[in-house]
Amino acid sequence: MITPFTPAIRNTNKPRILIVDDNPRFSQSAHLILQQSGHYVVCEENDAASVVETAGSFRPDLILMDLVMPRLDGAQVAAQIESDWALHGVPIVFVTGLVTPAEAKNGQRIDGHRVLSKPVSSSNLLRVVRVVEESLPCRAAA
Fold first, then answer.
1. Could you give the domains of the chain?
2. Helix, strand, or coil here: 123?
3. What was the pLDDT predicted at 44?
4. Is the bond leading into 24 cis (omega within 30 degrees of zero)?
5. pTM for this model (two decimals)
């Protein structure tokens, strides 16, 4: 499922976040949290096989991606994103229940990507997104 976005949204200065999770309940919940903060433009994708196409159209500044999904796992999708010239360099945060909150907080990484443990609280989701957002090239230059 892709959450529709319009060209007007594309022209905003707000960071764009793509949420990738095969569980629509999680992606919708995370979408709502981020959207209600008023700081982000958010798009959802629930089919791992469609992520590269969706990301190519949406042009995210950050991707929040489930690690365990059917057909393709998050690491496989991340490799596809990293090999795409237009998407290479977009930060990816894996969202998974495979690591504990303590491991995630202590800087655990999977394939070099930050990790956010499930279940995710609103405050923790916003905290991790802000940390990554501050390291984006467009933010660092500002």
1. 7-140 (3.40.50.2300)
2. helix
3. 97
4. no
5. 0.86
